[in-house]
Amino acid sequence: MSPDDFRQPLAHAAAHASEWLESLPDRPIGPRESIGDLERAFSGELPEHPCDPTDVVDELSALAQPGLMAIGSGRFFGWVMGGTLPAALASDWLVSAWDQNAGLRYATPAAAAIEEQAGRWIVDLLGLPAESAVGFTTGGTMANFVGLAAGRGAALEAAGWNVNRDGLTGAPRITVLAGAEVHSSVELALRYLGLGAPTVVAADDQGRIVPQALAAALAAATGPIIVALQAGNLHSGAFDPVGECIRIAHERGAWVHVDGAFGLWAAASPRWQTELEGLELADSWATDAHKTLNVPYDCGVAIVARAGAAHSAFSVHTSYLIRDDAGAADPLDTVPELSRRARGIPVWAALRSLGVRGTVSMVEGLAHSARALAAGLAELPGVEILNDVVFTQISVSFGSDERTRLITQAVIEGGAVWMSGSSWAGRDVLRISVSNWTTDATEVAASVEAVARAIAQVGPPR
């Protein structure tokens, strides 16, 4: 191998990446070709002989471009997907070049030290316990998995059962309580953990769990209990009354996990201090850095207040995994993976580039753009904003479900913006998630105009 082997492929990759990024302000948001088109483009037998790496990079870019979604655009509002900050993107390229397996402090000390510092910055920014264990997962589902796995072990240990030694067969049944609008990623993590579906607790019209209903459910439950709360409802952005609910749950001895895939970052700003009062009293939290913090996919963040509970769930000891002399926990002790890329390094770079004030400004800016977008849409004929816009989510109706679906489709087909369809509170909605750091007043105005064109295209209600 020679350094020259990499020079041309990397140079071409950088050029294609720059071309892509430069196209985002003006390009249509949706893919120009379908999955069928892309499958045909990438079909064919594996070549018999090697190909020049630079040619492979050029071919990949040319074939893939028509099938790419402009997720990094400030006019992309689908599925709570953020963009990528410059420092985070550039550092992610270094992560791939360095190719460190980030599981062990002894083997890859730079990756471990950087991720440990990123974790300290996160808990400090969010006002969470300084001694918490922080792990970097693939995304919110696995971050929820980590917190709930730690909770499963701790809850069963308190009931006199060692789940690591004895498994779940014959174990006391854990009751998991969650609001009626619990996110599917929590339900999926519970399935992975063998805990089954949660017991549903009533929620209000914004999707917030009702404390009195939670108290009643806790009183009716027997045995070990886990309570799953949320910071940021998928459709309304609303926060469960976490402080009150955590106090109620802890009085019953329950483990409390908070799913804050995008909304946990609101804790960085004093603006949401009232809504998130008592958040730090929970036992575990989950969020995504590839949402609100705007780092590249994939990067979830799992935080567990009692580090020992996380380490008990995930730590592994074998002769070939060499621990450092300090005896500190390794990164692999806090996440489900033994082998993984150093996905926490772009988090460090994002936070280092923003600082405290920049991070708070970005979080508040996303919420400001959401309010501006909701206000602009509300002035259009036949538009109803269904939620209180308290953070970054907007749910819109255009009257009947059929009309809402037609306008949603017209918005997507128009190409200027991407807003995904959904259903909430028994109604079809156009769901908008403001998650990209580049969304500004210009992007908001262009997005309102795009929806206005879709309304005009569909015509007045019949």
TrEMBL record:
Its cofactor is pyridoxal 5'-phosphate. One of its GO terms (biological process) is carboxylic acid metabolic process. The modification N6-(pyridoxal phosphate)lysine is found at K291. The keyword Lyase applies. Pfam families: Pyridoxal_deC. Keywords: Aminotransferase, Decarboxylase, Lyase, Pyridoxal phosphate, Transferase. The keyword Membrane does not apply. One of its GO terms (molecular function) is aromatic-L-amino-acid decarboxylase activity. PANTHER family: GROUP II PYRIDOXAL-5-PHOSPHATE DECARBOXYLASE (PTHR11999), MIP05841P (PTHR11999:SF70). Belongs to the group II decarboxylase family. This is Aspartate aminotransferase family protein.
